[in-house]
Amino acid sequence: MTTQPKASHFIDGQYVEDTAGEPIEVIYPYTGKVVATLHAATPAIVDRAIASAARAQKEWAAWTATDRGRVLRKAADIMRTRNHDLSVLETYDTGKPYQETSVADATSGADALEYFGGLAASITGEHIQLGDDFVYTRREPLGVCVGIGAWNYPTQIACWKGAPALACGNAMVFKPSETTPLCALKVAEILIEAGAPAGVYNVIQGYGAVGASLITDARVDKVSLTGSVPTGQKVYAAAAEGLRHVTMELGGKSPMVVFDDADLENAVSGAILGNFYSSGQVCSNGTRVFVQKGIKDAFLKRLTERLAGIKMGDPQDPDVNYGPMVSERQRDIVEGFIAKGMEEGATLVAGGKRVDGDGFFLEATVFADVTDDMTIARDEIFGPVMSVLDFETEEEALTRANATDFGLAAGVFTADLTRAHRMAAGFEAGTCYINTYNLAPVEAPFGGSKMSGVGRENSKAAIEHYSQIKGVYVAMSDVEAPF
Questions:
Q1: pLDDT tens digits for 203-217?
Q2: Rounded distance, CA 347 to CA 369, Å?
Q3: Alpha carbon of residue 300 to chain centroid
Q4: What's the pTM value of the predicted model, to 2 decimals?
Q5: What is the sign of the dihedral through the CA atoms of 189, 190, 195 and 200?
Q6: What is the pLDDT of residue 164?
Q7: Residues labelled as active-site residues
């Protein structure tokens, strides 16, 4: 596959290059080698992208919702037809195994395009009768939306933000992470091929300065970010200066609670999915695994046995199920947390070391005897590090699970469904799971509370964040006035 794109940016329906921008090297995490070189957007590129989106948005909003939906559904069909090539590219971009990208990345993006394409025609207002008078409401687009993506799911995030935005009649300028800049260009290309007007979905590359210039541009009406809490705070503050609409999908330190009566195999599977899928680089990961004391030894024993099923290697090999970290820098960060865990007295049960070779591999790491005050139990690590904590009672587990500034996700494993629903109601988190973990169907809302975010992605809830309501009062009689 050719990993070097035709150009760095996709603006007004075509690829655009400006080599005056700062170089962006795309490193394949499996080899550590450069597989593409792009350029950050210059001010001229940023201006061109926003101007294109502002012009195209008015044309796109004038289309019927049914016609807009048809384009999104066609784009979903194209994406599914090209799933193999898109998955291979995603693996080059992120280092995630093809075994994963082929079922969880472009397919998820296609699901979003199809879902919001089907929902588009149902985005309507309401009629409110007031005697003979009445009010009707119109649900209207916001205008130009800026999407800022993270590096762990570049194709999916480009679609999760683009699909609801376009369904509502907005246009988008999307900036992928500079670490994984390749896949969003293919999303833009597919949308144009499916019939979207030129300029409705643009992709420009860049580092933080490019994102900042997008967020603060007066022509931008909405900002949607997937990223870390520190980045989210900066973006939120910048967007607030122009009173722009925002959606913030930020980080987490999510709890997963395993009771004595849980199905052991399912609980271990949930912990693996919530800690080691994508080599642990998932914002909703349940990295604080609270295990009731009666099942702790059995849980750790079975978990260790299951880790023997990890197959590292060339992530393009369909048999490989565990890939490298996305970058050398990210691996170094995670190694620092592992060192801190050992320094503070946690028991290293498995992993903890980097793997020899050119790629950025780090073993799946499990710590036991972790306490709430340890760094690895408090800070988001964003890597393959699981912290196992003991607990005795339901009340204790819930209190400790909620003792964090984060609130993205939470999960519980138990055979007692009454208790499961009590826990779900008590969790201070936006996305909760009972007897499973980390599933994110487009039909369900996804997002966090507390420091983990504002707003929701996916489901009908996303429509609220990419549109606004206009009320129109209609009088059926003469107007009375005091003078």
A1: 999 999 999 999 999
A2: 6
A3: 30
A4: 0.97
A5: negative
A6: 98
A7: 161, 249, 283, 457
